[in-house]
Amino acid sequence: MGKVLVLHADDPLAPDAEVLTFEKEMRDANVDWQLISYGNTVHSFTNWDLDSDHSKPAAYSAKSDARSWAAMRTFFEEIFADRNPRLFGSNLLFPFSMPLF
């Protein structure tokens, strides 16, 4: 069975109906899935090249970027640690760290 992590935002480009459809598809397929939604955050919130004007449909959010990075690391530790636990202990998979705000 697959595992899926979705890092989502108050995203005008992904309407609520589509999110609900995705959730139903994951449940129906018996997928081990997570959906984390970041409030006061819009599409492309991890794109450092965007400004942070959240009145636009896409904008950078330092806080949500840091939170999503932490969630992704936790997810990767879960799905990859049994294959080679030293990847995480030696920090080879993540050779740099993101500051948490």
Q: In words, what does this structure look like?
A:
- This protein has one domain.
- Helices cover 36% and strands 14% of the residues.
- It contains 3 helices and 2 strands; from the N terminus they run E-H-E-H-H.
- It has a two-stranded parallel sheet with strand order 1-2.
- The chain is flat, with a radius of gyration of 15 Å.
- The C terminus is likely disordered.
Strand order of the largest sheet: 1-2
Number of DSSP-assigned strands? 2
The secondary-structure class comes to: alpha+beta
Number of domains: 1
What percentage of amino acids are in beta strands? 5-15%
Give the biggest beta sheet. Answer: 2 strands, parallel
Q: Terminal Cα separation, in Å?
A: 34 Å
What Rg do the Cα atoms give? 15 Å
Low-confidence stretches: 95-101
Round the mean pLDDT to the nearest integer and report it: 86
The rough form would be described as flat
SS element count, helices: 3
Helix content: 25-40%
Order of helices and strands: EHEHH
Question: What's the gist of this structure?
Answer:
36% of the residues lie in helices and 14% in strands.
Task: Please supply descriptive tags for the structure shown above.
alpha+beta; two-stranded parallel sheet; 14% strand
Helix-strand blueprint:
Elements lengths: L2 E7 L6 H13 L3 E7 L23 H19 L5 H4 L12
Parallel strand pairs: 1-2
